[in-house]
UniProtKB/TrEMBL annotation:
This is Sister chromatid cohesion protein DCC1. GO terms for cellular component: chromatin; chromosome, centromeric region; Ctf18 RFC-like complex. It comes from the Eukaryota. Pfam families: Dcc1. Belongs to the DCC1 family. One of its GO terms (biological process) is DNA replication.
Amino acid sequence: MEIEKSLPYGEGGAEAILNVQSNTSISIAYHQLFGPHDDLMLLELDEKLLPDILNQRVTLRGQPDEDAVLCTQSKTYAIKFVGTSNSVFLIPPSNLSIALGASPNSSEKDHDNAVVASVIKVVPGSMELVEVAPRLDKLKLLLSENPYSFDEVSQMNIELTHKNKGLYSWSDLVEKVQASDEELCTGLRALAAVEIDGYWRSLDENFVDEILNMLLHNAVLNDWLLSALNEDEVLPVLEADGFPREIVRHCLGVYGSKVVDETRGGCTWRLEERPVGVHFARVILRGKKMNLERFMEEWRKKVPEGMNGSFDVLEGEVLTEKIGIETRIYAFSVSSLPSVPAERFSKLFQEKPKWEWKELQPFVRDLKVPGLSSEGLLLKYTRRSQPSADAEPIFSAR
């Protein structure tokens, strides 16, 4: 290449390229260590991610059989390879060129031609980061392996229990689940998981049912208000019944919310209608379908007095079907569905080929896909039909 602007030999490397002015040119040559260098890859970044990268606040997560993701403290990014049809030359800094073995004694011919930049690799493309939803379905699977039960509470040798399969610490979950730390915490809360002896566990449904029933039973005996349960009163009573304090406190957080009560002191909880109502509906419907009227009768007997026994609180937890003149109800929880949109819609349309919007909406509103709105999800995965202008829209599989 003809030199239009002479550059002194020895100033080569990446610095020479960075300092090239417009309407000038420099010569390049193959580095004597030129090769594929598969351990060197380019990563294209959004500027907002630079601080996390430069300060080493990111991690790569994934098992050997999974595509790796990059996680910051709060977000998860898929790593995509993007090829380029143009030749991209990778030129190391001059000091690195010497470290890699560039000869300081170039030939006179090289000096005359001012070969100032040595190409060590031709890059076929770069890695690109695309924000994605956390992959939390695996978290559900891991926590379901060994739920914490009342039988385990009574075991004398806890260390023996920890040798069982299906116990995962925080570091285990970080290694196995493709989600950022914040997203993993959110997923654990959504699954009502609790840390016990250093392991994150889900609670056995029968165990939770015993705790909740005992709490309601003692509320009647001791005249406790379900809207103002004093933790200092509740915990000792249920502990005397054989339930660990930390598990009872956890259940108060799952089925209630903290309230400010300056007159009573301590920590006060209020049981909430939806989680309590959903729990008893699951207990009644476990593994079966029921006549709707019979279900409502049994369910309202279990829902504590003073709480709303409206069918609306079961939104996203049950489905109904008509068989002749009879309406049946069965458990179908959004929490049991895949979090990947394509898999979620596939499951929904396997269950029912056609959905009215008011029925479908509770089962898709939790789907979050970066860069895609709820309307976009529906356009991508469903077909919408409307028999008449005033009729409810119907959604079927695309």
